[in-house]
């Protein structure tokens, strides 16, 4: 029997997984609606599918039920204010400057690091959130630098721009012997 997990500890543990930050935008009845999300991932290459999660109590959950498509706008490290604004945590009387521009993929956040334009593929209920799956129809790469806004352990972060280490060499090109160990399933 498994032990009970405290929801606060669950969130704290999940917070150790660093993520990028995106603004999801959709147009419903000629009005653009957006929300901040870090629960985003690619799902499939063929067809090209991505997904994000939205709280069932959020207004965006209703909008996604009516939407034909949406954009996923990856934020730059200097767009923290937009993340806070679209997450509903903005405390100032005036919104930070932003603009959505017309694009083949739907409303695209001007100045984002990159964006995906998606047609709504499917919405799947998953506990207190819904999993929104989109088929990617359009791609946009913003101008350099495209340094991403990072979220980790409940805080916004930036990439360390000090000297970087190269990735390990291609393992297929290596001449070293490689041992593979199989851990078979217990079939009893």
Short synopsis of the structure:
This protein has 188 residues and is mainly beta. It has one domain: Electron Transport, Fmn-binding Protein, Chain A (Pnp Oxidase, Chain A). 12% of the residues lie in helices and 38% in strands.
SSE blueprint and pairings:
Blueprint: H1 7-14, E1 19-20, E2 22-28, E3 31-37, E4 40-45, E5 48-55, H2 59-66, E6 69-74, H3 80-86, E7 100-101, E8 108-109, E9 114-126, E10 129-141, E11 150-152, E12 155-157
Antiparallel strand pairs: 1-11, 2-3, 2-6, 4-5, 5-10, 6-9, 7-8, 9-10, 11-12
Question: Could you please describe the fold and organization of this structure?
Answer:
The protein has 188 residues and is mainly beta. It has one domain: Pnp Oxidase, Chain A, CATH 2.30.110.10. Helix content is 12%, strand content 38%. The chain is built from 3 helices and 12 strands, in the order H-E-E-E-E-E-H-E-H-E-E-E-E-E-E. The protein starts with 6 loop residues before the first helix and ends in a 31-residue tail after the last strand. The mean pLDDT is 89.
Q: On the 0-100 scale, what is the average pLDDT?
A: 89
* Name of the CATH class: Mainly Beta
For the biggest sheet, the summary is: 7 strands, antiparallel
Order of neighbouring strands in the sheet with most strands: 3-2-6-9-10-5-4
Q: How many domains would you count in the coordinates?
A: 1
Q: What is the number of beta strands? A: 12
């Amino acid at each position: 029997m498994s032990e009970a997990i405290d929801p606060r500890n669950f969130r704290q543990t999940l917070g150790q997984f660093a993520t990028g930050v995106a603004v999801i935008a959709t147009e419903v009845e000629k009005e653009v609606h957006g929300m901040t999300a870090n629960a985003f991932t690619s799902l499939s290459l063929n067809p090209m599918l991505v997904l994000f999660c939205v709280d069932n109590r959020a207004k965006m959950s209703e909008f996604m039920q009516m939407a034909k498509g949406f954009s996923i706008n990856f934020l730059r490290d200097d767009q923290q204010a937009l993340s806070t604004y679209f997450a509903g945590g903005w405390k100032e009387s005036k919104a930070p400057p932003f603009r959505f521009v017309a694009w083949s993929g739907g409303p695209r956040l001007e100045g984002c690091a990159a964006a995906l334009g998606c047609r709504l593929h499917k919405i799947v209920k998953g506990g207190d959130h819904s999993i929104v799956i989109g088929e990617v129809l359009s791609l946009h790469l913003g101008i350099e630098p495209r340094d991403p806004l990072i979220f980790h352990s409940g805080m916004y972060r930036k990439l360390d721009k000090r000297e970087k280490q190269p990735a390990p060499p291609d393992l297929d090109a290596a001449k070293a012997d490689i041992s593979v160990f199989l851990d078979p399933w217990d079939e009893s």
